[in-house]
Write a structure and sequence with these properties.
419 residues, alpha/beta, six-stranded parallel beta sheet, 14 helices, 19 strands, 24% strand, globular
């Protein structure tokens, strides 16, 4: 079967190509990809090419399909994995397989396994590591966004606190504690707010900072102070271009924060996070830098006397994905808040390489269609001359300006198919 896919050949060298997939083995599946949400990690891999830890050194001779936040349908299953799914079943995947200790992952390491493609081959190791997940939701994009949401769940689980007088670490954010989310209204920040408000373990205080008033206003309109209060969380949004670190510290009552998330690899933000930590405070560095020499100062006096500490995670695990898929299915999480742009497979090479410079949140791609990357906020204007966008504008207006399962169904039925 032929597939169309965006393949990485080297540094900043992405190509949309059509090529033949080999026949699957008894331990593999042939699958149709429907949606993939573009990730800054793909941007970093595209910039670094073979220098990236997950990308093969010989990528120029053996290109890999990019994209790792995808969802689709099973087309055919080899006899040894046929019991796991039937043709037509929806699926998503956990890309962090750690197969036999390697960092190999879809979207970075495989010639036939990645999200930015029309058809792919899911290899045996995805099943051996339990990283293939059947998905029963009604929207493919929810399956795509399960991966970034699983990273957020993983972040909450990787944090830890100590018990004085013992060597026991209690994993997870401090229940009923004080949390600060710095540079926190990007797409991953929005997902973290959603998770913090609706997961079983919640803080009692959540302070979200940023310097972008437009993004702060959007976040506050989606996750209101009043709604947070119903969840038992006191929520504050702070523009740190207008109010200083002392103000943020004051919101904690002067004690500092139990859990501080740093959502941007910016030295002053990291150092502010350190300054805001309270006794036994945990700083989660939730932002992978592209600069391999990135450094920031940390107060080691407080490490010694106040038991402050740092953790980080670059992804979630399969259990995290199951957790967030369940929460989505029960209506506790709404990942639509992360999406600000939608496009087709044709736009992936250019958009991926410019991802750092395109404002807004997540860029959602439907791999079976041909469509330029389009901001949801632009649907109404485009609808003045294009009936498809006019209808999409009506649909998203009904969902308070957010992408939705209905919008997805309409787009897949009416957009131009990828040639």
């Amino acid at each position: 079967m032929k597939t169309k896919a965006v393949r990485l050949y080297g540094k900043s060298d992405l190509r949309l190509e059509e090529f033949e997939l080999p026949e699957i083995t008894d331990d593999e599946m042939l699958a149709k990809v429907i949606s993939d949400s573009l990730c800054m990690s793909s941007y970093k891999a595209a910039l670094q090419g073979g220098d990236h830890k997950r990308v093969p050194n010989n990528v120029a001779e053996n290109p890999v399909i990019i994209g790792h936040e995808f969802c689709g349908e099973v087309v055919k299953a080899g006899k040894n994995v046929a019991h796991l799914a039937n043709p037509g079943d929806k699926f998503t995947v956990q890309p962090a397989m750690f197969y036999k200790g390697t960092l190999d992952s879809p979207g970075y390491s495989y010639p036939y396994y990645g999200g930015d493609a029309t058809y792919i081959i899911i290899p045996a190791e995805a099943f051996e590591t339990d990283c293939f997940l059947k998905y029963e939701g009604d929207a493919f994009y929810h399956g795509s966004l399960a991966e970034p949401m699983s990273c957020i769940a993983g972040g909450a689980h990787v944090n830890y606190h100590t018990k004085f007088g013992s060597y026991v670490h209690e994993m997870g954010i401090r229940e009923g504690g004080k949390m600060a989310l710095l540079a926190g209204v990007g797409p991953m920040g929005l997902g973290t707010i959603d998770y913090a408000l609706h997961a079983e373990r919640k803080p009692s205080l959540l302070v979200v900072t940023d310097i972008d008033p437009v993004r702060l206003a959007r976040a506050e309109s989606i996750f209101t102070v009043e709604e947070a209060k119903k969840q038992g969380v006191e929520l504050h949004y702070v523009n740190t271009a207008e109010k200083d670190e002392a103000y943020v510290m004051g919101l904690s009552g002067g004690t500092g924060y139990d859990d501080v998330y740093v959502m941007a690899p910016v030295k002053p933000v990291v150092e502010m996070g350190d300054n805001l930590l309270g006794m036994d405070g945990c700083l989660n560095f939730f932002a992978g830098p592209t600069n391999t020499e990135f450094k920031a100062e940390f107060n080691f006096y407080d490490v010694h006397y106040a038991a402050t500490h740092v953790c980080s995670n670059s992804g979630g695990n399969t259990q995290d994905m199951r957790e967030v898929l369940k929460m989505m299915g029960e209506g506790q999480l709404e990942p639509s808040v992360m999406i600000t742009h939608v496009g087709g497979l044709n736009c992936v090479p250019e958009v991926t390489l410019k991802l750092h410079d395109i404002p807004g949140g997540k860029k959602l791609v439907y791999t079976q269609i041909d469509m330029p990357l389009t901001a949801i906020d632009d649907f109404a204007e485009l609808g003045k001359t294009d009936p498809m966008f006019a209808e999409l504008a009506k649909i998203v207006e009904e969902s308070h300006g957010l992408w939705s399962a209905e919008a997805e169904r309409y787009l897949l039925a009416n957009a131009k198919p990828i040639d």
